[in-house]
Amino acid sequence: MEYTIILMLAVIILVIPWGGNPPPIEQLVDAFRQFYLDYSWNMSLP
């Protein structure tokens, strides 16, 4: 039961936007997407 409550709190914290910014999970996904785009661009250089 404790793990369920902790997991629900973690999901709520990651999904709710704080301080006018996008939700943390969206920021994390955007950061991974940008990292992959930069990495693939660097790998395409001769």
The major beta sheet can be summarized as: none
Specify the structural class: mainly alpha
The counted number of beta strands is 0
Order of helices and strands: HH
> So what's the overall shape?
elongated
Strand content: under 5%
End-to-end Cα distance: 54 Å
Poorly predicted regions? none
Radius of gyration: 16 Å
Helix count, per DSSP? Answer: 2
Q: Helicity range of the residues?
A: over 70%
Question: Could you characterize the architecture of this molecule?
Answer:
The protein is mostly helical. The protein contains two helices and no strands. The chain is elongated and about 55 Å long. The N and C termini lie far apart (54 Å). The mean pLDDT is 93.
Name the features.
mainly alpha; elongated; 2 helices; 46 residues
Blueprint (SSEs and pairs):
Blueprint: H1 2-15, H2 24-44
Short structural description:
The protein has 46 residues and is mostly helical. The chain contains two helices and no strands. It is elongated, with a radius of gyration of 16 Å.
